[in-house]
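Duplicate of #3305? Posting structure anyway:
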């Protein structure tokens, strides 16, 4: 079973100003003359982690990581102004142009799969290949499954901690109630809600409990941006038309692609990945039988590293 490539450090970092007030953190590692690949992180609002560089052979790929608006090392932290899907797609184009890249590979999981797919459907001629994991199509039924009714039946114990910050009278619309707290002026209540929201995601991300994943999601810096930005996107239908990604899937037909999905993914259930594959049949589809949602699970790591290696062979 494949492991992540050895740890590496960036050879160059950038702070790119986009629309006020946003400044994006961007880094490059690996081979400066290699195949350009953009790592598109999840959330929205999660930010990048050091291990994200390690899905790619550093001798073959020019590895580009960026923190989306309000996330990670981008500033201002957890900012919602001017933070939409269309803004993020435009930011990716700014990064591509500033780094003088003609075409690149996109690699994204969860919300990162959403954003990668939307970008590819918008700028098809700029994408050499797509590797997407834990498919999230941002449809109303997917949001309701995880934040109102569905996943609570699998994780009733974790669910009690998730709903605890919300008054009982407001629990018929948890997304709306959370958004109100996360954008309110009471900073203590805001952080309490942010941690509950984020830890719910961390606890449910893996097939087997992973303390490191939960601790990452529980970190105050990550929790605040993740919860605020996710709730902002989801209450606005992720700034997408319902079923937009599948409706626009014919635009992907000439892009080499790999879809990796954990069979027991309870954040983004397999149904969405299956439907994407039906709409994009030329993409290779890998269902990992012993995995949930997280990119850190061994079967998912194995499939993703194999996917990046195989993609490189096709493109060299």
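Output from current build:
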């Amino acid at each position: 079973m494949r492991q992540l490539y050895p740890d590496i450090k960036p050879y160059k970092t950038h702070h790119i100003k986009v629309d006020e007030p946003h400044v994006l953190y961007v880094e490059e590692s690996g081979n400066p003359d290699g195949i350009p690949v953009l790592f598109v992180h999840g959330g929205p609002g999660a930010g990048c982690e050091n291990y994200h560089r390690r899905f790619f052979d550093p001798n073959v790929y020019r590895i580009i990581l960026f923190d989306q608006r309000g996330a990670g090392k981008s500033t201002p932290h957890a900012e919602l102004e001017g933070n939409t899907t269309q803004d993020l797609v435009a930011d990716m184009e700014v990064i591509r142009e500033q780094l003088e890249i003609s075409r690149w590979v996109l690699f994204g999981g969860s919300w990162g799969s959403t954003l990668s797919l939307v970008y590819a459907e918008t700028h098809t001629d700029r994408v050499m290949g797509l590797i997407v994991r834990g498919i999230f199509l941002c449809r109303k039924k997917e949001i309701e499954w995880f934040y109102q009714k569905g996943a609570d039946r699998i994780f009733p114990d974790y669910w009690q901690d998730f709903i605890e910050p919300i008054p009982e009278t407001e629990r018929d619309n948890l997304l709306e109630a959370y958004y109100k707290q996360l954008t309110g002026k009471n900073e203590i209540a805001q952080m309490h809600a942010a941690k509950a929201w984020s830890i719910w995601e961390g606890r449910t991300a893996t097939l087997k409990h992973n303390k490191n994943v939960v601790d990452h999601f529980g970190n105050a810096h990550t929790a605040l941006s993740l919860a605020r930005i996710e709730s902002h996107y989801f209450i606005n239908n992720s700034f997408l038309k319902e079923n937009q990604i599948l409706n626009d899937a014919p635009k992907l037909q000439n892009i080499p692609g790999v879809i990796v999905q954990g069979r027991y993914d309870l954040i983004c259930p397999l149904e969405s990945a299956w439907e994407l594959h039906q709409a994009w049949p030329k993409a290779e589809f890998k269902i990992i039988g012993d995995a949930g949602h997280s990119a850190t699970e061994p079967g998912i790591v194995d499939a993703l590293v194999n996917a990046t290696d195989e993609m490189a062979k096709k493109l060299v």
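Confirmed duplicate; merging threads. The two ends are 24 Å apart (CA to CA). The CA atoms of residues 3 and 298 lie 8 Å apart.
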